[in-house]
Design goal:
The chain has helices at about 15-50, 60-80, 85-95, 100-110, 120-135, 135-140, 145-170. With about 170 residues, the protein is mostly helical. Helix 3 packs antiparallel against helix 4. It starts with 13 loop residues before the first helix and ends with a helix.
């Protein structure tokens, strides 16, 4: 068997472009989700502060709550951020591509582990490139609104109403 050591994937191919766009899309989704969680923590904390009394409602407490939410969100983004290979696996699964994208990416990123003949690797890569050209990224990696976003929106409404009620009692 011949080793496919020279079969590096060019950075300007349909496959790499698709995976790069999917990677950015996934990062944006994670940032939105974790930003919503940070806001939910800040709004929830603001509601608790309002319930406890207006003496405790100082700007720095809200800043501390928001910073804690951002810190937690940054940790969760880092923990949940997927590799290029994992993104390709997700695209394969959602688009029913039978592991074509992830296999081509694996062969390209780990040529030393490839025990297949060069012709087989090249044929598989060409198949993956053709599939990447026609892949629908929106279907392969759809945006989904997380529970954090709904909770954050609900808490924002409650916080807004309770702030109005609290300020009307002060007048």
């Amino acid at each position: 068997m011949l080793r496919a050591s020279h079969n590096r994937l060019n950075q300007h191919t349909p496959l790499t472009a698709l995976v790069r766009r999917a990677h950015r899309r996934r990062l944006f989704q994670l940032l939105v989700d974790e930003g919503a969680l940070a806001c939910a923590i800040a709004f929830g904390g603001g509601i608790v502060l309002l319930v406890l009394g207006t003496e405790i409602l100082a700007w720095y407490w809200l800043a501390v709550l928001f910073a804690a939410g951002l810190g937690l969100g940054a940790y969760r983004v880092r923990k949940n951020f997927e590799s290029r290979y994992e993104i390709a696996c997700t695209l394969d699964r959602n688009l029913a591509l039978n592991d074509a994208l992830s296999t081509a990416l694996y062969f390209a990123e780990h040529p030393e582990r490839t025990k297949s003949r060069d012709g087989v690797v090249e044929q598989q890569r060409e198949l993956a490139q053709d599939m990447a050209r026609s892949a629908d990224l929106r279907r392969g990696l759809p945006f989904a609104v997380s529970r954090s976003a709904y909770i954050s929106g609900l808490l924002a409404l409650i916080d807004r109403k309770s702030t109005r009620l609290n300020s009307s009692h002060l007048v």
